[in-house]
Amino acid sequence: MKYEKKVVKILQGNEACVEGAILAGVRFFAGYPITPASEIAEGMARKLPVIGGKFMQMEDEIASMAAVAGASLTGLKSMTASSGPGICLKQENIGFAAIAEIPCVIVNAQRGGPSTGLPTKPSQGDVMQARWGTHGDHPMIALAPSDVNEILQITIKAVNFSEKYRTPVMLLLDEVIAHMREKVNIPSKNEIEIIDRKKPVGEKKDFLPFKADEDMVPPMANFGSGYRYHVTGLVHNEKGYPASDPQGVDQFLRRLTNKVELNKKDIIIEEEFSLKDADIAIVAYGSVARAAQRTVKLAREKGIKAGLLKLITLWPFSDDTIERLAQKVKLIIVPEMNLGQMSREVERTAHGKCRVVSYGKVDGDLINPVEILNKIEEEINEK
Amino acid sequence: MKNNDIIGQYIRKEMFPHIWCPGCGNGIVLGALIRAIHSLGWEKDEIAMISGIGCSSRITGYVDFNTMNTTHGRALAFATGIKMANPKLKVITVMGDGDCSAIGGNHFIHSARRNIDITAIIINNMIYGMTGGQYSPLTPTGKYGSTAPYGNIDQNFDISGLAASAGASYVARSSIFDVNQSIRFMKNALNKKGFSVVEMISDCPISYGKMNKLRTPIEMLNWIKSITVPRKTWEKLSDEEKKDKIPTGEFLNINIPEYTEKYQEICTYAQREGGEDE
pTM value? Predict the structure, then answer.
């Protein structure tokens, strides 16, 4: 693929992720075999050498996350992919990437958990892990596309956000969209926006590697570019040296979180369907959002004024949108392939302004449009 | 004075005083490593020095290279990403014995197996010093640690032997007692194309010494002197005599294909053959 003109292809979700990543400029991938994410590593192993990129199969998930952070420091856009059990192991070095502000993308093709769980079945059980999987307060951006074409588009966004905000970005797929094959529009290089990390300018001698600009993001120098500096997982000052003075620590950790939280407007991607006159809203994400879109149509046919808020950015969370929505509708239904993880976030941000009902499913099957509709009808009849 | 001038060129003076205890061997290892690097005439900009967690891993903060103090045991995994992404960089890792052989054991084995061009300096003081003297996989059997108050029943690793059998190109062991030999081995290791290891037998009077009747740096140094024997002498010892001794010297020095060069060949092949589904 030279990406000089746009093409249409039938691709698997994992393959679309590879295409999107390469289009966005990813040139380093390190991974470890795991179902249902292995096709991403296989695609990278095939494609990266052709374009002079680097692929590595590491000895374990921990090492692949470490290698990705190391490679990113030299200036290559870097990515890894795994599923629940592997993402657990990566958490240590996701935290490192967060505190050391190293851009990278972690793909999680979600399967049923906990532990080995349901390796070949879809799940959305890792959405809270995506936010809080590594210890300590840290920023996190997590995106969840809902079909194969969107996987390509959102993978590009994920790479861009990681570069723009110098932070790890989690791309949440699930087993169904990872393995499903669909029509994908592969754009040409000049049709898409590509964001590269800010580079430092000015004297190398006076370089402060962790001094943030007004957008709260410090410019990033590549290892080997002549800006010699220290990178550490310890809390550090603007020079990059370990620091423990309470004021400095507080400022640093707040900036780290705020560079994402205060740039929410730029990071949050969400879509609304038929919400204008709705009195019942579905809030959904990932492959479930696609089923929910059909539910809206079915409900409307029955005269139920339903609408859908589809979240593509899960973290940072759409607090403001949910708050507004809760003032408008009587009922919010949150269907998801877990026992109500995001439903609790919706309930928190609805501030009691409307009823929030969780429809959680963990049997390893997809949520289909009719069962969401049944849930809506059940709730209407109960009231 | 001359030596001080050399060291001064490579350290971040603003980071001093360092965190190491009086009598610690880390400074001796750092001094030897800087002298070895200096003798090779390498530019500071082309060196990336990576460490994990522990007292010895603080070394990366004190030297004026591209430096990274990573997570516990993972120095080699980060370093692998750096070397693979930019093979022009000269990549060095500094690890402690627990860091390298316990939590980082897998990365150590596989870095050797790939024969990636990284130099691994292992500072083996046979104890987890920073956390208060718990026994490590390199604490000799029968010695004491804060988590082995009645004596260590674990067998200790031969980390140099492990590196050699796992596929490294260069493996040597020296000690903080023999600085000139250390510098020579480090220079050979840095010069080697492939995975190279220098294991430095070191001391920790505070944590190891305290629990093993070697309370002062001098006692510890004398002990190290007494247990280290040149490889050739060691080979002639009886099994009983070998028990309490550690052989030093160069164990392996071979030329075998290096990982990033092999990967470059793969890229050339893939580009020539198309390697694509178009």
Answer: 0.97
Which residue, A267, A299, A334, sits at the end of a domain? A267
CA–CA gap between residue B138 and residue A320 (Å, rounded): 56
Distance to chain B for A264, nearest Cα, Å: 29
Mean pLDDT of A302-330: 98
Domain span at B70: 2-272
Whether the per-residue pLDDT at A2 is higher than 90: the answer is no
Same domain, A141 and A103: yes
A97 lies in the same domain as A157: yes
Q: Which residue of B has its CA nearest to A230?
A: B67
* CATH code for the domain in which residue A169 is found: 3.40.50.970
Indicate if A190 and A291 belong to the same structural domain: no
Residues in chain A within 8 Å Cβ distance of B61 = 230, 232, 241-242
Shared domain for A9 and A42, answered yes or no, is yes
- Torsion, Cα B170 B173 B175 B178, to 10 degrees, reads -70
| DSSP H/E element including B255 | none
- Say what the pLDDT of residue B1 is: 45
What ipTM is given for this predicted complex?
0.97
Residue A91 forms contact with B (CB below 8 Å): no
A313, A269 in Cβ contact below 8 A?
yes
Percent of chain B with pLDDT over 90: 95
A chain contacts of residue B85, beta-carbon cutoff 8 Å:
28, 54, 70-72, 74-76, 78
Residues of B with Cβ-Cβ distance to A78 under 8 angstroms: 81, 85
Shortest CB distance from B89 goes to which of A78, A93, A224? A224
pLDDT at A1 over 70: no
Tens digit of each residue's pLDDT (9 = 90 or more) over A64-73: 999 999 999 9
Q: Is residue B203 part of a domain?
A: yes
Q: Is A350 on the interface with B (CB under 8 A)?
A: no
Q: Over the stretch B56-94, which tens digit does the pLDDT of each residue have?
A: 999 999 999 999 999 999 999 999 999 999 999 999 999
Residue B97 to residue B159: CA distance in whole angstroms: 9
Cβ separation A28–B84 shorter than 8 A: yes
Chain B residues within an 8 Å CB radius of A50: 267, 270-271, 274-276
Distance CA A125, CA A336 (A): 9
pLDDT band at A32 (very low <50, low <70, confident <90, very high): very high
A136 and A232 housed in the same domain:
yes
